Amino acid sequence: MKVGILGSGEVAKTLAGGFLQHGHEVMLGTRTPAKLADWATAHPKASIASFSEAASFGEVVVLAVKGTAAVDALRAAGTAALAGKPVIDVTNPIADAPPVNGVLRFFTTLEESLLERLQREFVDVRFVKAFNSVGHGGMVNPSFSGGKPTMFICGNDAAAKQLVTGILDQFGWGTADMGKAEAARAIEPLCMLWCIPGFLHNEWRHAFKLLT
Ligand SMILES: NC(=O)c1ccc[n+]([C@@H]2O[C@H](COP(=O)([O-])OP(=O)(O)OC[C@H]3O[C@@H](n4cnc5c(N)ncnc54)[C@H](OP(=O)(O)O)[C@@H]3O)[C@@H](O)[C@H]2O)c1
Predict the structure, then answer these.
(1) Which member of 29, 129, 146, 183 has the lowest number of beta carbons within 10 Å of its beta carbon?
(2) Would you give the distance in Å from CA 201 to the centre of its chain?
């Protein structure tokens, strides 16, 4: 597949590396291509472009920007370039305020997730929440002594979720589909839970698994 990745941070680079490793074509979009110069040299098969070029390139698009900038990045990508496409939303709505006793603060509420806000503005986009409940180091080919971890996903479009489930399968994840966009109200805060051992005890190597 052709994958357009909006972002230049650790998540964007990690997922880009994963997609390349699993045989996909990758274009990263950023406002500042110079930030990715070293990464691009190390990954000559990937291309670096603007948000709008990466969105146009992708058959599937990955949104991997700062949560507070998610709307702006999608606007810069352009509604026409994104219309009808599956967009993997990796963002977390982390506020620009410090954690309290290791608990991150969000700018959203339990009544409305960031994914729902994005879906409301970009109605034609087929958003799927995924990859937000693990640190970037564990996103691709995760290896844990407790076995294959679970990625919780949600979104309104069944075919888009099926496509993302296939990607997660390739990347070494089990997938738990939690339903429609509203389920992001529960999935996004998993990021808070995941980060607590990190902030309190500097433990950043773990992932969630759903036991049945
Ligand atoms: N770090 C992790 O381990 C992890 C794990 C799970 C989920 N997440 C979530 O994944 C997302 C990316 O995280 P990250 O740590 O890789 O990077 P980040 O530092 O949260 O975000 C960097 C990206 O945000 C973009 N950005 C910042 N301000 C912007 C603005 N005003 N307008 C447009 N774009 C803007 C930057 O664009 P430019 O490229 O143009 O500079 C850059 O691509 C976040 O939402 C984060 O919460 C992170």
Answers:
(1) 146
(2) 25
Long-range CB contacts (within 8 A, 24+) of 191-196: 191/92, 191/94, 191/104, 191/132, 191/133, 192/103, 192/104, 192/106, 194/133, 194/134, 194/135, 195/99, 195/102, 195/104, 196/102, 196/103
Please tell me the number of Cα atoms within 13 Å of 130 on its side-chain side: 32
Report yes or no: 29 and 54 within 8 Å, Cβ to Cβ.
yes
CA of 64 to the centre of ligand 1 (A): 6
Q: Are 116 and 184 in contact (CB under 8 A)?
A: yes
The pTM (predicted TM-score) of the whole model is 0.98
Write out pLDDT tens, residues 25-54: 999 999 999 999 999 999 999 999 999 999
Residues forming a β-bridge with 88: 62, 128
Q: Which of 65, 71, 194 to mutate to test the pocket of ligand 1 (most atoms within 8 A of CB)?
A: 65
The residue among 95, 74, 89 whose CA lies nearest residue 129 is 89
Nearest to 170 by CA among 189, 203, 192, 148: 148
